[in-house]
Design goal:
The chain is mostly helical. Helices cover 62% and strands 4% of the residues.
Length: 603
């Protein structure tokens, strides 16, 4: 008489990964068709061998024998999930939960199902409930930590992930998720420590290797990145995304030929979708360096077309932003021709300083240069002016702004000053500078609220400015969306310059113009003039911009790769090589080329 293993032993076979052995043992069991538990075990053995349809049949048989068997309902839900039927999967988990609401594992699977349906609130609720019933449930802890990290709740995320690590200290996935969260929370040193711990446990994990490459590159740790890539190469670890970082590393060392050789090994279909835009951008920039504008433009066209396709909702917001900006430009033109301006707001001693300019006009470079001066502190791209605008309403016209009463003006001043105070070091420097280039569109509001405000207006040849914006892989927001087409970029430029030039005239702005080309070609003369305008003494630190960039650790704009390099002149008048591709911009930009003292010949 054949002896059949008890159910506990069959379950152990599955937990040990002996799926075929478990399948054979259960299929030969005489009680199989009458036992809900044996049917469920057989379904599990088949499921883990990717025999999904067979597994489904046995789970359903288990349920037909015992409709109240919660475990079988969970497993059936897993089958539906594997087959891509998220609705049936979710319903199966809900049925299991109704049968056993105290089972943390069911809450965990329910959370996964909600997450797969992009219902993050219900996913979080499910994981939280799972932990209420079993505070040490590893899956709930990890997934809740990851979810909170994705939502920007970094302290809560780290709390759950560290509890996970205490339960499973040798799990490289947990170290990896902690590192990702720390990177998002701008703690690069500790993030890198956890990436290194993850790689000590799983040295050949390509995803973790790529995550560390991304951290090192974005934080300008180029020497460490170079060493790390050498180690990875010695281990013969290859992957398309890894080839991308080899290419990027070579590009940043100005080894364009090697960068191109790495890029030639990559198909955009083979790399992570989140990196395809950056791939096209890097291909385009390599071709630009090699003086192949037609081929380069094909890469930038592909990048922007894909960006527009992937971000349709943001493109629509960008259209609204462009329309509002053009309306403001028309508003201030009308005001300048019909009404004289007198600021009736009560005078204030506050004299904030703003760096403004169109996208890619050199504001990041100037910011980095000025950071080398001990009396200057630059606050980068914070929404203090946006907070004022939101307080009065984004659709309010310039006419409305000019008529704000003193009470509202005082409130707006307070809103701005409370915001910037959060970023003011102690002791307060002699010059606090607010750098957000596209505050350009809010100059009338700034002039109304702060009549003594000073402006550093960054300027670059209009054709170069628009072209350079088109060549960047921006993280899209409403303003940047216009840069995905040459024509809309030129339209936005025209509207913003109209607002600026009319504001200079109407509000008699206290400002200084800083031309990018002059800054590149005669930096010291330009900076001496600027420091004199700011009533600051000369300091040689402003001539060591690379050191200032490295001291920042991370620069959050697309310019960060350029500003850590020695200043170069090759980007000046680049537009001449691309002129055939800029026809949609020429008519709109030609008046500004003349107005700002440039030549249509690029000199």
């Amino acid at each position: 008489m054949t002896k059949h293993p008890p159910i506990d032993e069959l379950i152990s076979l599955i937990s040990e990964g002996k799926y075929q052995e478990a399948e054979h043992a259960v299929k030969t069991h005489p009680d199989l068709k009458q036992s809900d538990k044996l049917c469920n075990i057989l379904g599990g053995a088949l499921f883990y061998q990717n025999k999904v349809d067979e597994a489904k049949n046995w789970f359903q048989r288990s349920i037909s024998l015992n409709p109240n068997y919660a475990r079988a309902w969970v497993n059936l839900g897993n089958v539906f999930k594997q087959k891509g039927d998220l609705t049936k999967s979710l319903n199966a988990y809900k049925k299991a939960l109704a049968l056993d609401p105290n089972d943390a594992n069911i809450w965990y699977h329910l959370g996964l199902a909600h997450y797969d349906q992009d219902d993050l609130e219900k996913a979080e609720h499910s994981y939280q409930n799972g932990l209420l019933h079993q505070s040490s449930h590893l899956g709930c802890l990890i997934n809740l930590g990851v979810l909170m990290s994705n939502k920007g709740r970094f302290d809560e995320a780290l709390e759950h992930l560290k509890k996970s690590l205490a339960l499973s200290p040798q799990d490289p996935n947990i170290h990896n998720n902690i590192a990702i969260t720390l990177k998002r929370a701008k703690n690069a040193d500790l993030a890198d420590e956890h990436y290194r711990k993850a790689l000590a446990l799983a040295p050949n994990r390509v995803d973790i290797i790529i995550n560390r490459c991304e951290l090192l590159e974005q934080h300008n740790r180029l020497y460490t990145l170079d060493q790390f890539l050498d180690i990875v190469s010695e281990r013969n670890i290859t992957a398309p995304d890894l080839s991308y970082f080899h290419a990027l590393n070579s590009f940043r060392q100005n080894d364009i030929a090697t960068s191109q050789a790495w890029l030639d090994q990559i198909s955009p279909d083979a790399i992570n979708p989140s990196r395809v835009l950056a791939f096209y951008e890097l291909c385009g920039k390599c071709l630009d360096y090699r003086n192949a504008p037609k081929d380069a433009m094909e890469m930038f066209d592909a990048m922007n077309a894909l960006s527009r396709a992937d971000h349709k909702a943001m493109i629509r917001k960008g259209d609204d932003y462009l329309e509002r900006t053009m309306a403001r430009a028309e508003d201030i033109i009308t005001l300048n021709t019909t009404q004289k301006w007198t600021n009736t707001a009560k005078d204030t001693n506050s004299q904030p300083i703003f760096i403004v300019g169109f996208i890619r006009s050199g504001t990041t470079l100037l910011d980095t240069i000025l950071s080398g001066h001990p009396d200057i502190h630059v606050v980068e791209e914070k929404g203090f002016v946006e907070a004022m605008r939101n307080q009065i309403g984004i659709d309010k016209t310039i006419s409305f702004i000019e008529q704000l009463d003193q009470q509202m003006v005082a409130s707006l001043q307070n809103t701005y000053e409370e915001g910037i105070a959060l970023y003011t070091p102690n002791p307060k420097p002699r010059a606090m500078i607010d750098r957000l280039p596209l505050n350009l569109v809010e100059v009338p509001l700034i002039a109304k609220v702060f009549p003594k405000a000073r402006f550093i207006f960054c300027l670059r040849h209009p054709m170069d400015t628009v072209l350079s914006g088109y060549m960047q892989n921006f993280r899209l927001n409403a303003a940047m969306a216009a840069m995905t087409q040459i024509k809309t970029a030129a339209m936005l430029y025209d509207a913003m310059m109209t607002i600026w030039q009319n504001s200079v005239e109407r509000y008699q702005l206290d400002h200084i113009n800083i031309k990018y080309e002059d800054l590149i070609e005669d930096r010291e003369t330009v900076l001496r003039s600027l420091l004199s305008y700011l009533d600051l003494p000369w300091h040689d630190g402003v001539l060591e911009h690379s050191k200032s960039a490295e001291a920042k650790k991370v620069i959050t704009t697309p310019s960060y790769r350029q500003v850590v390099q020695p200043i170069y002149t090759r980007a000046i008048y680049r537009w001449r090589r691309y002129q055939p591709f800029l026809r949609d911009a020429e008519d709109l930009l030609a008046p500004w080329v003349r107005a700002f003292g440039y030549s249509s010949e690029g000199n």
